Every structure is written in C-alpha cells, then in structure tokens.
Amino acid sequence: MSLGRPEWPVIGELVVATIRRIESYGAYVYLDEYEKEGLLHISEISSRWVRNIRNHVREGQKVVLQVLRLDISRGHVDLSLRRVSKDERRKKIEDWKKTRKAETLLKSTASTLKLSDEEIFQKAGAKIIERYGTLYLGLEAAAKKGVDALTEAGVSKRIAKILAETARDKIVVKGVTIHGVFELTSMDPRGIDVIKGTLLETKKVAEANEAEVALYSLGAPKYRIEVTADDYKKAEAALENIVATAEASWSEQEGKFSFSRE
C-alpha cells in the first residue's frame, strides 16, 4: 500500500490496477495502490458490445479504472474501464509512476537513517505532502532548491539533507532554455574587464528571477547567452530583465551594445 494512503479508495476515484483473472462475466483485478481485489464487469469494459473479453484486456495488463461501487463490509469493489478517458488514463499513470518513485526515494532515505517506513512518513512524507500537495512535487522542489525546500515544510535538517541529496541524484528537473546573442564593443582601455563585468551581472539578475544563465564566447564581440527556467514565462521574464540591466549598464560606456534572439 502507498505510504499515507487510506485503506480503501472512494467512489469516483481513478485507480491503477493489474488484470489478474479473466472470466466470462468480467475480470478480477488487483488494485496496486490499495492491495485490494476488485471486479471489472464485462458491461464496464467498453461502450461497445464485448464478445470476447480477451480482445480488450489480458492477464498482467496495467489499466486505469474508475471506482463505481464500494462495499467495505464485503470487501467488494466494482470498477469501470469504459468511463475513463484517454487523457485521464495518461495523467493517472503519470501521477502513479511519480508517486511510486517518490515513495521509493523516501524509503531509501528511511533505510539510510535506520527509520521505519512509518517513521519516515510521519517525520517527512506527511509534512511534504501538506506543504506541496504531493510527495513527488516536494522532492522535485528539493531537487531544484536543496535542503531549504524540505526544512521549510518542517522536515528536520538531518532528514532533509539526506532526502534532498537523494532527490537530486534521482529526479531529473525539467526546464526550458532560450537563447540570444549579445554584441558588445568598448572603447575603454579596460574594455575586456568592463565586458566581463556586464556579463557576470547577468547571472545575478538571472538568480533574482529564478533562472540560470550560461555564457559562451562566439569570438569577440559576440557572446551567446542561454537562460534556463522552469517554464517559458519565467525564462522570458528573466531574459527580458537581463537584457534591460545589461543595456542600462552599457549606456554609460563608449561602445556598441546590441542583443538578438536566436
């Protein structure tokens, strides 16, 4: 069972399940997140008439199902495949994979610190979920920002340090990168130092705008800049501020300033 998850799903919830046994009237499935068995009746497999169930599902197949009815006293869960859209299926599988990965990282940290799964969930997992909504989002924040992302959620520094290191090793933080080219010439005898100073200033502006900058010389007077951020909106805002700051700084110099997007 997933860490911190209730014992039973709720009606209407989407669940990940594995087809275990196929009968003439439907298929019995294993609910991966709850360690329970459920029934996918033949009438809920497809919106079209189903002549042969095996043409639609097979043993061992992972499926996303919607909970239709629940009888906890009998341990009975009725499920539907036909009521789940392709987009819902894709998103649920994506979220499920992220949850599994996050829980694996949490358990790995528990093992390193010699804590039980329950202890690590109480000391870290529950706090991260409360702060970020999901365990994966919290660990993704830790992969980006480090220990502070976890201590801000109330996780102790001892646990946060190990967990943040694990997150950085195992979670690939996706971002977007945009490019441009500065052309800088200076008549100042200290021209090279002035140019270096201007380019270094771009890194400070990027940090203030939640972005990262990489600079490359294309051969004087041209310098390529790459701005990376979580999304295009942040990247564009950071680049706009970088160019404005650099141009304002260069206005005091004798020389040429230009910027072009790639």
TrEMBL record:
Coiled coil: none
SMART domains recorded: S1
Entry keyword annotation includes Protein biosynthesis: yes
A single GO molecular function term of this UniProt record: ribosome binding
Database matches in PROSITE patterns: S1
InterPro entries: NA-bd_OB-fold, S1_domain, S1_IF2_alpha, TIF2_asu_C, TIF2_asu_middle_sf, TIF_2_asu
Source organism, top-level taxon: Archaea
Domain (S1 motif) ranges: 12-82
SUPFAM superfamilies, per database record: eIF-2-alpha, C-terminal domain (SSF110993), eIF2alpha middle domain-like (SSF116742), Nucleic acid-binding proteins (SSF50249)
Keywords: Initiation factor, Protein biosynthesis, RNA-binding
Subunit: Heterotrimer composed of an alpha, a beta and a gamma chain.
Its job: eIF-2 functions in the early steps of protein synthesis by forming a ternary complex with GTP and initiator tRNA.
Family, per entry: Belongs to the eIF-2-alpha family.
Protein name: Translation initiation factor 2 subunit alpha
Organism classification: Archaea, Candidatus Bathyarchaeota, MCG-15
